[in-house]
């Protein structure tokens, strides 16, 4: 017999389900892993977090003999909770991977978001739920948003209406949660949806203790609705001169104190700060291992440990960057970029961010006339973990020219003329933490990495970093208008107004800041309140 407070987890090894495990543990439950089809049949409660691509997931389930066991379990109305792909697989089929069959339990097909509607795809971030019925699963969520990350979605139809528990809006209505009897599934990630998400998981695990409240009114008390613009807290991490990993912060990428000591600035401990930002309402937390370009990250066990510890208590998405590239260590052992990334995912990262290596990959891509051979880190990680798991961090620096003809690069007419009165500028990509400029511009890089399979762009700006005078609007506008994938504006936030400015004037989907949060100059809640009062949707709970 199953032990009390034990839930069975179907992890078919295609991606990171560490955060689901952490969330279950946080609620005081233990996990039994499915090792054979009989474990599915014998489960009291089964959680199925789908990760990776649709076709690959179906193939693995088939090979292990799980498909029939799952169908039988669900058709017998036993307690089941599918997450993300774990919802999509219940439908008849998906357009993903050129078309594949699903389990066929719910009528309808899973399709790609329509990119012609001008919305960034993947759909990443915190969105509102439109609850169709009262339920123990969702009613505790109330009016709070939940976290989505996906490029494909199911659509509510008259044929599947008996299943649809909640929908969400993104260029049209899509299925956010389904339910029939004891069978539930959500397109969103409860394990990444903060306190609201933990309430959803509790609603599944402990339905007897959870009341089905009436669905909240859809007007949200008049606040702006829909996909929230994300506010991300960033922790630049490196070893200080005594070898401890600390959160540091530079001005224009210089992280050392001025004056005779020249020490690496220390703004706190990474795990502690990540926990603080989760409590204060950050929509995501990003760790950048800023010396990763020279140190081998798998040799950097403290960073993996930071991630493990942070992910135990932080239930919003975690991104980690720095040193994601192939590497041969001193003993001659070779690691692919995919292996390095896999280690970060296993330790609790939801996304990895690639900096220098993306610039080299794009140089080769441009030299080859845009040919793709699948060998770059971006392609490899995107293929296995999905585009949404691959963020490209760009470190550009402004270069002034008198006229567009003076450079082959993408220029804009700038409102901030250069030192010699130059009217135009472009943004040069750099590698190694800004130490070396390359012959690639930020717009070129963004388009190329999108084509190579990246899911998101973290757009820093060396000139504005740490200056506190606002984001580089011209840069953010140029890059976010050039790609479909979401762009995170970064560098220069000094006040809540800088966030509303970048969202009003550009297509940025998120904005990231470091210094103002570390120094407690502006609370995250003040940024969110300001955004909402400016008519920009922001998640406040
Ligand atoms: O090249 O793949 O090993 O990745 C290295 C990563 O480390 C890149 O993502 C790169 O941006 C980052 N990095 C390298 N050196 C520095 C540095 O500061 N010396 N930090 C660095 C980048 C920029 C932002 C910062 C924002 C907001 N820091 O992360 O947090 O500018 O700051 P603000 O709000 O205080 O203005 P690879």
TrEMBL record:
GO BP term (any one): L-histidine biosynthetic process
Sequence positions that bind L-glutamine: 84
GO cellular component, one term: chloroplast
Compartments where found: Plastid, Chloroplast
Molecular function as annotated in GO: glutaminase activity; imidazoleglycerol-phosphate synthase activity; lyase activity
Active-site residues, Swiss-Prot/TrEMBL: 84, 189, 191, 236, 395
Binding-site residues, substrate: 323, 460
InterPro entries for the chain: Aldolase_TIM, Class_I_gatase-like, GATASE, His_biosynth, HisF, IGPS_HisA/HisF, IGPS_HisHF, Imidazole-glycPsynth_HisH
Keyword Chloroplast belongs to the record: yes
Region feature PRFAR binding, mapped onto this chain: 355-356, 393-395, 465-466, 491-492, 514-515
PROSITE patterns: GATASE_COBBQ, GATASE_TYPE_1
EC number of this enzyme: 3.5.1.2
Family recorded in the similarity comment: In the C-terminal section; belongs to the HisA/HisF family.
Protein name: Imidazole glycerol phosphate synthase hisHF
């Amino acid at each position: 017999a199953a032990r009390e407070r034990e839930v069975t987890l179907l992890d078919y090894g295609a991606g990171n389900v560490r955060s689901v495990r952490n969330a279950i543990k946080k609620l005081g439950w233990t996990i039994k892993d499915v090792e054979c089809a009989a474990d599915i049949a014998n489960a009291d409660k089964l959680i199925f977090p789908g990760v990776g691509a649709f076709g690959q997931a179906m193939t693995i389930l088939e090979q292990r003999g799980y498909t029939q066991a799952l169908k039988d379990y669900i058709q017998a109305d036993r307690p089941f909770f599918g997450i993300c792909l774990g919802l999509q697989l219940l439908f008849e089929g998906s357009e993903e991977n050129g078309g594949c069959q699903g389990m066929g339990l719910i009528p309808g097909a899973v399709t790609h978001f329509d990119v012609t509607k001008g919305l960034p795809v993947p759909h990443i971030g915190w969105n509102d739920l439109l609850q169709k019925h009262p339920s123990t699963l969702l009613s505790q969520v109330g009016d709070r948003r939940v976290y989505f990350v996906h490029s494909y979605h199911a659509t509510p139809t008259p044929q599947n209406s008996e299943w649809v528990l909640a929908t969400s809006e993104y260029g049209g209505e899509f299925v956010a949660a389904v339910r029939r009897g004891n069978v539930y599934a959500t397109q969103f990630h409860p394990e990444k949806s903060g306190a609201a998400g933990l309430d959803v998981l509790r609603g599944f695990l402990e339905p007897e203790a959870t009341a089905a409240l009436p669905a909240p009114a859809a007007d949200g008390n008049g606040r702006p609705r829909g996909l929230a613009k994300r506010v991300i807290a960033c922790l630049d991490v490196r070893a200080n001169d005594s070898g401890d990993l600390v959160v540091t912060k530079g001005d224009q990428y210089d992280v050392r104190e001025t004056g005779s000591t020249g020490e690496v600035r220390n703004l706190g401990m990474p795990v502690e700060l990540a926990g603080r930002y989760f409590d204060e309402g950050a929509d995501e937390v990003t760790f950048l291992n800023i010396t990763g370009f020279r140190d081998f990250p798998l040799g950097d066990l403290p960073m993996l440990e930071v991630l493990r510890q942070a992910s135990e208590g932080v239930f919003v998405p975690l991104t980690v960057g720095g040193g994601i590239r192939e590497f041969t260590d001193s003993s001659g052992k070779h690691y692919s970029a995919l292996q390095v990334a896999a280690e970060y995912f296993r330790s609790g990262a939801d996304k990895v961010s690639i900096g220098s290596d993306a610039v080299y990959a794009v140089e080769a891509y441009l030299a080859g006339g845009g040919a793709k051979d699948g060998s770059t880190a971006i392609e490899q990680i995107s293929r296995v973990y999905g585009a949404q798991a691959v963020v490209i961090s760009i470190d550009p620096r402004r270069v002034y020219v008198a006229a567009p003809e003076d450079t082959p690069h993408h220029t804009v007419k700038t409102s901030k003329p250069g030192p010699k009165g130059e009217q135009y500028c472009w943004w040069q990509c750099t590698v190694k933490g800004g130490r070396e400029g390359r012959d690639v511009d930020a717009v070129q890089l963004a388009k190329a990495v999108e084509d190579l399979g990246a899911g998101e762009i973290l757009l820093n700006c060396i000139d504005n970093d740490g200056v506190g005078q606002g984001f580089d609007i011209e840069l953010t506008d140029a890059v976010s208008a050039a790609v479909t994938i979401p762009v995170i504006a970064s560098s220069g936030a000094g006040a809540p107004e800088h966030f509303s400015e970048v969202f009003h004037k550009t297509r940025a989907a998120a904005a990231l800041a470091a210094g103002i949060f570390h120094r407690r100059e502006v609370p995250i809640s003040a940024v969110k309140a300001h955004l909402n009062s400016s008519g920009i949707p922001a998640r406040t709970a």
